[in-house]
Amino acid sequence: MGNKKTVKKGKKKNPNLRLVKSEESGRPKKKREKAGTWEYKPEKLRFGRSKRIVILLTVFLVLLFLLVGGGLYIINNYRVTTVYVDGSVHYTNEEIMDMVMGGRFGDNSLYLSLKYQDKGVENIPFIETMDVTIEARDTIRITVYEKALAGYVKYLGRYVYFDKDGIVVETSEEETAGIPQVTGLSFDHVILHEPLPVDKPELFDEILNITQQLAKYSLTADRIYFDSTYQVTLYFGDAKVALGENVDIDEKIMKLQHILPNLLGKSGTLDMREYSEDTKSYSFEQD
Length: 287
Prior knowledge:
Layout: E1 29-31, E2 38-40, H1 49-77, E3 82-86, H2 93-101, H3 109-115, E4 127-136, E5 139-146, E6 149-155, E7 158-163, E8 168-172, E9 181-183, H4 203-216, E10 223-226, E11 232-236, E12 239-244, H5 249-259, E13 268-271, E14 283-286
Parallel strand pairs: 3-5, 9-10, 12-13
Antiparallel strand pairs: 1-2, 4-5, 6-7, 7-8, 10-11, 11-12, 13-14
Helix pairs in contact: 4-5
């Protein structure tokens, strides 16, 4: 009995457990080159060429549909139907609209908002800049800031416009309404963006004051004339108004607004050279 081997009783195994060799599993194997063992690698999902073409075509058509649909929506829903124009004197509202809304998609508010974002319209004669504001999908506002013109002179068949400092800002072959012609000034050349070479540059301050006072009382002179002693005469059709020296000009023009309607159609000279706040005397001599 001492030679009998004792056998350790183990746990009872599962009778349904079955060992399957890797060759029988049906799974693809890949042999490791270094380790010499097999490992499982799942197959990638692959589409045939025809399926890939169908998928790409479907994606393309969906994108094209979205693009065309979005474009039609923008064109139909952002069409400008109302335009406000502020501050334009030298150009009509229609001319301003053509400048701002010209070209393809010029009537689309979304396009205009991108085109004029943070910038205005420049390089337009007589205009400093124009700002374009989109107020609604179908409404825009164009604000015009014109150059401050004091008057113009004729030189070599052209109209030469200058500002309050006598700087030549524009030259044109066409006369602009509302800007008086200034005569009696002597100069021998004109250079754009430079002062008119006159003997008395301070005259430009006087010219600007006269034009501003006339505009204040809704008066429009055809011509401002300076004689050899720089006394000024205003022309309103066939009627002339002699203002004389640059003294009490504001007072004279304020009074002129009440006198001028009586001079319409008449030819002669209204002498206001001696008119002042104290004397208030003037005379009219008919031609």
